[in-house]
């Protein structure tokens, strides 16, 4: 059984990841893909009111579990489209630790801040300012296999671009390069 492929979409809230992911599920015909979205995992938690510390702990455990769920799905041979927001410093290193880099196609979904703010208001289901808060953090690592701008192309056009890219992905992948960079930084921190 071959390990599953992981198409990992990273971008701020309202950047278009979910729309692109849905289009990918429509057009990818070289396997059976499953959408794993961090928002869906968040929606599974209890609805009772949680205090700030309890909520922060619950969200961190859920996100760590989400990363491991993606890894488990791929390890079982499932192809996966991941819809995620790498907006906290620990999230990317955790993903790098649990996801096989050779199986991950890392896609940066960009959108200008003014357009993110417009979309956030139009949606009405997001806390205003979330995208602006995430904006300087999500792409701070600076390395992708493929990048797109959802303000200049439709979700279908971006999905088609991703599909066309898949047979030509680089070696090492962005996840491979990032994992090496983080390992070197950890070694230097330990040695320092």
Helix content: 40-55%
Describe the strand arrangement of the main beta sheet, using strand numbers: 2-3-1-4-5
Count every helix, treating DSSP H or I runs of 4 or more residues as helices.
8
Fraction of residues in β-strands = 5-15%
Radius of gyration: 17 Å
Low-confidence stretches are none
CATH-defined architecture = 3-Layer(aba) Sandwich
E-strand count = 5
| Name of the CATH superfamily | P-loop containing nucleotide triphosphate hydrolases
Can you describe what's shown?
The protein is of the alpha/beta class and 192 residues long. The chain has one domain: Rossmann fold (3-Layer(aba) Sandwich), CATH 3.40.50.300. The protein has helices at 17-27, 38-42, 52-75, 91-98, 113-123, 130-138, 155-165, 174-191, and strands spanning 6-10, 33-37, 79-84, 104-110, 146-149. It has a five-stranded parallel sheet, sandwiched between helices. Helix 1 (17-27) crosses helix 7 (155-165), helix 3 runs parallel beside helix 4 and helix 5 (113-123) packs antiparallel against helix 6 (130-138). It is globular. It starts with 5 loop residues before the first strand and ends with a helix. 36% of the residues are buried. The model has no long low-confidence stretch (mean pLDDT 93).
Descriptors for this entry?
14% strand; 192 residues; Rossmann fold; 5-stranded parallel β-sheet
């Amino acid at each position: 059984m071959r390990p599953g492929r992981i198409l990992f979409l990273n971008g701020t809230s309202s950047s278009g990841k979910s729309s692109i992911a849905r289009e990918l599920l429509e057009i990818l015909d070289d396997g059976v893909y499953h959408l794993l979205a961090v928002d869906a995992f968040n929606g599974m938690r209890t609805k009772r009111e949680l205090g700030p510390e309890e909520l922060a702990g619950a969200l961190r455990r859920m996100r760590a579990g989400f990363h491991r769920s993606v890894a488990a799905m791929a390890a079982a041979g499932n192809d996966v489209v991941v819809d995620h927001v790498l907006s906290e410093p620990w999230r990317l290193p955790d993903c790098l630790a649990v996801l096989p880099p050779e199986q991950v196609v890392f896609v940066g979904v960009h959108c200008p801040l003014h357009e993110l703010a417009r979309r956030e208001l139009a949606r009405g289901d997001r806390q205003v300012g979330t995208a602006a808060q995430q904006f300087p953090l999500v792409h701070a690592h600076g390395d992708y296999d493929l990048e797109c701008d959802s303000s200049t192309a439709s979700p279908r056009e971006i999905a088609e671009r991703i599909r066309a890219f898949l047979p030509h992905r680089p070696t090492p992948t962005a996840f491979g390069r990032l994992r090496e960079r983080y390992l070197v930084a950890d070694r230097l921190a330990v040695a320092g």
